[in-house]
Amino acid sequence: MMDAPVGDPDDFSKAAAGNGLVAAFERTLSLCNTVIVVLAALALIAACAILSYSVLSRALFHSANYWQDEAAVFLLVGATFMTSAYVQSQRGHIGIEAFVGLLPPFANRIRLWLVDVASLLFCAFFAWKSWTLAYEAWDEGQVSNSMWSPPLAIPYCLMATGMTLLCLQILLQIATPLAGSARR
To answer: In whole angstroms, how large is the CA radius of gyration of the chain?
Structure first.
């Protein structure tokens, strides 16, 4: 269930019209999210093609492919984490609406704001730890334990970047009502 009705993501006139800086930030983040969603869709198609090739090559030619599982996992990790800000912009993450009908609208707005603040704190910690993990993997030259041995900095950077974008999206959702604009 979602916390609020999903509006048109391209309608910026209502979302942050009260503050030009917030509206510009929202437009920029929305454009970034749109590009990422397209790239993530391509990554999902590539992961499907890689795994299908793997199954066919094993079944038909009895050949072992050592790279396909990790390549597909890297693509799926990237698609999952990088699109999290888009999902949050649509309020598509799972929300519990047990109190929505019981609380007055003002209390629900406060509840939403508090949930966004708590989510931001958690996601900021997750992003910070992800960036430290990515740095360690890059600095130490960590690779996976397979024969292919791709650098682990790749999925860690995708995870850290996705969580950072999610933090920016949540920060925008916190700032929008404070700037005097309507909450989406």
So the answer is: 20
Do residues 152 and 70 make contact, with C-beta atoms less than 8 angstroms apart?
no
Lowest mean pLDDT segment, chosen from 4-8, 74-78, 158-162: 4-8
Q: Is the pLDDT of residue 142 over 90?
A: yes
CA distance 45 to 79: 11
82 contacts 162 by C-beta, under 8 angstroms: yes
Q: Model's pTM, two decimal places?
A: 0.82
d(CA 56, CA 119): 43
Q: Could you read off the pLDDT of 55-112 as tens digits, one per residue?
A: 999 889 888 788 999 999 999 999 999 999 999 998 877 776 777 788 888 888 888 8
Backbone phi, psi, residue 126, to 5°:
-60, -45
Cα separation of 70 and 174, whole Å? 37
